[in-house]
Design the sequence.
C-alpha cells in the first residue's frame, strides 16, 4: 500500500487531475489493485493525508519536543518537517476530512508545537508575553516560505537554521 501512496504523491504533485490508471502505472500495479484498496479517488487522497500526517507526528516524536532542550528540539523537528513536507507536499496540502486520522493528527501537531513554544518561553527563548498561537502561525509560515522559491533545494538543516533564527530573532539588526 505504501508504494501506491508514494506513487500517488508523485503523480498528483505533478498533475492533480491524474487518473487512477496513471497512479497505478506509476506504482507498477494494475488499476484494479488500486480500486481494491481504495474504492474512490477521495479514499486514496484521504489515505495519503493520513499517512503524511502520521509521518509528521513520527518526526516530531523523534525530535523529542518534551525532553530535549527546546532549541535542539525546534531545530531537529523543523529540519525533519521540511524533509517530510517535500516528500508529501500534495498530501499535506489536502484539507483534512473532519474526524479523520489526518485531522486528529493535525490537532496533535498543533498541540505539541504550542507545548514546545511554551517550554521555550518558560526558558526565556521567547518573550514572556509571546502569543504562542501567533508564534505557531508565524513558524508555520516560515516553514512554508522555506519550501518555496530559490531556497527550495537548500539542505533542510540549513533551512531549519534560517527558520529557527528568524522565528527567535527576527530580521532586524542584532543588538
Sequence:
Amino acid at each position: 500500500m505504501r508504494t501506491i501512496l508514494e506513487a500517488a504523491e508523485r503523480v498528483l504533485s505533478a498533475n492533480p487531475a491524474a487518473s487512477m490508471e496513471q497512479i497505478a502505472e506509476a506504482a507498477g500495479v494494475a488499476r484494479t489493485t488500486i480500486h481494491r484498496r481504495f474504492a474512490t479517488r477521495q479514499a486514496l487522497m484521504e489515505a495519503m493525508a493520513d499517512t503524511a500526517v502520521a509521518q509528521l507526528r513520527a518526526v516530531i516524536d523523534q525530535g523529542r519536543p518534551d525532553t530535549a532542550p527546546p532549541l535542539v528540539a525546534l531545530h531537529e523537528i523543523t529540519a525533519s518537517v521540511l524533509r517530510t513536507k517535500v516528500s508529501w507536499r500534495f498530501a499535506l496540502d489536502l484539507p483534512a476530512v473532519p474526524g479523520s486520522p489526518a485531522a486528529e493528527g493535525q490537532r496533535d501537531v498543533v498541540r505539541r508545537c504550542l507545548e514546545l513554544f511554551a517550554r521555550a518561553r518558560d526558558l526565556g527563548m521567547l518573550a514572556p508575553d509571546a502569543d504562542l498561537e501567533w508564534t505557531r502561525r508565524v513558524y508555520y509560515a516560515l516553514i512554508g516560505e522555506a519550501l518555496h522559491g530559490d531556497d527550495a533545494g537548500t539542505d533542510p538543516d540549513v533551512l531549519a537554521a534560517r527558520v529557527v533564527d528568524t522565528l527567535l530573532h527576527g530580521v532586524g539588526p542584532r543588538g
